[in-house]
Amino acid sequence: MARHGISGASVGGVTSIDSGIDTVVVGGGIAGASIAYELAASRSVLLVETETALARHSTARSAATYVPGHGAAPLRALVTASGPRFARIKAELDAPPLLAPRAVLHVAFDADGEAELAADVAEQAGEPGAPVAIDPAEAQRLCPALRPGTVRAAAVVEGAADLDAEALHQAYIRGLLRRGGSVRTGAPVTGVRRSGSGWQVQVGLDEKVVGAAEVVDAAGAWADAVAVRAGVPRIGLTPYRRTIALARVPDPSRLRGPDGTRLPMVIGVPEDFYFKQEGAGLLVSPADETPVHPHDVRPDELDVAMALERVEEVTGLGLRSVHTAWAGLRSFVPDRLPVVGAWPEHPGFWFCAGQGGSGIETSPALAAFAAAVVTGDPIPADIPLEREALAPTRL
């Protein structure tokens, strides 16, 4: 994914920053960009990012798929609410189409996987966009790349789609600037301290101090580190490495679905691999979750080899090598739900973190939810969650 190349000098003329900002949002990925845009509707917002370009970490390294029925019930509610919001974002922010329909197949290859898939389908029965059980022959028809006779059980999500994460992120930044917000890149937060009823945030290599009424910590895998600098308790985030590679396919003609359509995305049950057609190649992942400290993570050769092996086992496509490989960070708290809110003892320091692997597909609804939590406004009617559902006090 191309980098955005937005710098403090080129965005909104931000070469120095005045005090009196209502809200400083820390983190220039999809979480920070989306909530900054929402908050800028009613307050002055400064978005700060450590890197010299925005969205260089998890946002730029995601498989970027919108999958209804993905995750626990609160996450599924956010995914469902985000669907119509993508269309509104496209219209409001002059974005290209953000969703490109592509079905997702959940496929089980043994008895344990079959039981887990049946339980998931039963739990989500009646929900919008829920996976629908299909027989193995239909799964084989939808994805001829699967090795014949290997599928034991399957379910399809017809309402899934590829998601243009870069276009979405750029739209949010464009909307933030239109609403009078500011962006500063190459601006690590080196200190945060309480100042009266507000906060003083020390940013950038010049250690400029910005006065703000509130701080939103949307720093992804680094969210706990930002909290520590502010003297605020951690929420207990653990970053996990996730590896993706673009594999070479010796016979690309096998990557054709019914009537010449592109293949659906295929996710193993339990989730120990996934693959998705990308042109004449195949995006593959071992769905690894290796706990790491927050850093600019790189792929591990063994994980790349594991991805090739697992996908080759169920396809027989002759996967032996890759064009490229990369890794990103997925951050979770113990219950694997996002954290949105503040500790009662530290009002005005708001978390918007812990989105795990659902940060992009839930961003429209999660940003609107988080903005309502920060401002005290009612939660939007299309988001069926109480504000306490994602609060840090649940941890």
Structural summary, described in words:
- This protein folds into two domains: 21-60 and 165-237 and 335-394, FAD/NAD(P)-binding domain (3-Layer(bba) Sandwich); 104-158 and 238-332, D-Amino Acid Oxidase, Chain A, domain 2 (2-Layer Sandwich), CATH 3.30.9.10.
- The protein has eight helices and 20 strands.
- Helix content is 25%, strand content 26%.
- Strands 5, 6, 7, 13, 14, 15, 16, 17 and 18 form a nine-stranded mixed sheet that branches. Strands 1, 2, 9, 10, 11, 12, 19 and 20 form an eight-stranded mixed sheet that branches. It has a three-stranded antiparallel sheet with strand order 3-8-4.
- The radius of gyration is 21 Å and the shape is elongated.
- By secondary structure, it is an alpha+beta fold.
